[in-house]
Amino acid sequence: MPVTVLLVDDEPLVRAGLRAVLEAQPDIGVVGEAADGAAVIPLVRRLRPDVVAMDVRMPLMDGIEATRALLRSVDAPPKILVVTTFENDEYVYGALRAGADGFLLKRARPAEIVHAVRLVAEGESLLFPASVRRLAAEYGAGGGNRAARSALERARLTEREGEVLRLMARGLTNAEIAARLVVGTETVKSHVSSLLAKLGARDRTQAVIAAYESGFVAPG
């Protein structure tokens, strides 16, 4: 089945460009569009997209608040890919902390846009890990987030789960982690599921953000 995408951006030209790029792929389909975050929840409930590509800055409801509202209100929510003009933007980090699965630059090349949608839909790797690391270094309190540190301590990750989390933060896929640790891919998937549950994280991105903010993984 193709990956279905909902486009949310207040600029019609951006939506048109993303639609053209994505619909040129046989495995991706655009199922709808919206001009503001306030329209996201009813559209998601009606269209059930796999991925929402959402502008981080919009006039009525921005991407951060729309992400929070969507995750709070919709059962089995879609993956959320924040679309932004600036990579090193506190708004982007805010969206990731709110639950977005990754971000995409508006100036990205068509191949990068397609790759980002596919990767976020699959959920088995961190999108742009170096950029997430830089954002965490600038806006993540340098490991001094006491709430994140307490949550990580309560999680009581095993030694192997800690190894997996560190490799996830470097952007390795499940297959790459399996090769590095000399274990099966299914074993890695089991460790990932376990550590996500222990951390109360929706996905890899949220787990990695928690790891940086708690100081478990250094962003430098």
In short, what is this structure?
The protein is 54% helix and 13% strand. It is α/β, with parallel strands linked by helices.
Give structural notes.
With 220 residues, the chain is an alpha/beta fold. 54% of the residues lie in helices and 13% in strands. It contains 11 helices and 5 strands; from the N terminus they run βαβαβαβαβααααααα. The protein has helices at residues 12-23, 40-47, 63-73, 90-98, 110-122, 129-139, 146-155, 159-169, 174-181, 185-199, 204-214; strands at residues 3-8, 28-34, 51-55, 79-84, 102-105. The chain has a 5-stranded parallel β-sheet with strand order 2-1-3-4-5, sandwiched between helices. β3, α3 (63-73) and β4 form a beta-alpha-beta unit. α7 (146-155) packs across α11.
